[in-house]
Amino acid sequence: MKRVDRWLQQWRIHQAARWIPEQARLIDVGAFHGELFHFLGSKLHSGFGVEPLLKTPTKSAVYVIESGFFPEVRPTVGSWDAITMLAVLEHIPDQEHSVITDACYELLRPGGRVIITVPSRVVDHILACLKFLHLIDGMSLEEHHGFKPHHTEHIFSEPRFRLVQHSRFQIGLNHLFVFEKTNKESANIDR
Length: 191
Known about the structure:
Blueprint: H1 3-17, E1 24-29, H2 35-40, E2 44-51, E3 58-59, E4 63-67, E5 80-86, H3 97-107, E6 108-119, H4 122-132, H5 152-155, E7 161-169, E8 174-181
């Protein structure tokens, strides 16, 4: 990971961390090397990370990071306070979104949060140029699947989730979405 990649990652972490409650039980999808867990420090009660690029599991006194893809790799019990997906959702093909949403709903406690960052569409072009110039590694840019940020609200929609926050950061090039799990379940959920 190059310096610019790390700087962008830290910016996403700072945006997301504001929405993670004290002493959170946190699932981090796309945990990489546990940077979010390290940043939270004593604010974190316990963490479970999932990272497809990880070769061997990482364990600490407070968190574990498993190799694989969410939701195939996930905790066995629910009642988590938050699930983060920082620069992850755009890498997941559309046909898998409902499986991700279902897993988040099953794993979160009522009122638990899904905290997501996704880049604006123009970012793909900027990152491709920066990658060409060897200023960034690109972090799997080829997997963005043409994701449109406004689709995020449809993926985590009522009645199971309620949008709490949508804002832009990094001079408008990135989106932060925060959804809260409701107690409402519908037999006729549109997918």
